Amino acid sequence: MILLPPLLAGVLAFSVGTLAQEKPAKPRLANLDDEGTFVISLAGQAVGSERFRIHSSPSKVVAQGEIRLNIEQNGKKATIQSFLI
Q1: Rounded to 5 degrees, what are φ and ψ at 62?
Q2: Residues pairing with 34 in the sheet
Q3: pTM, entire model
């Protein structure tokens, strides 16, 4: 058994009791604006891109994205576009 000096024991007891009474803070979303473009590649060749935009405020997050793929296989070309909101 470890005996602590009375003053140290009192400080520890007070600290633990105080921590137990504190309520955890509600997480808040930060204001954030970000956007960018990624290159999508296949076998080292660029085959498309992804553009994105993210905006957040304390009450909501809005994200938008656009993906474009241009793929050629066996002489046939395919273009795919997707818009995410």
Answers
A1: -120, 125
A2: 54
A3: 0.55
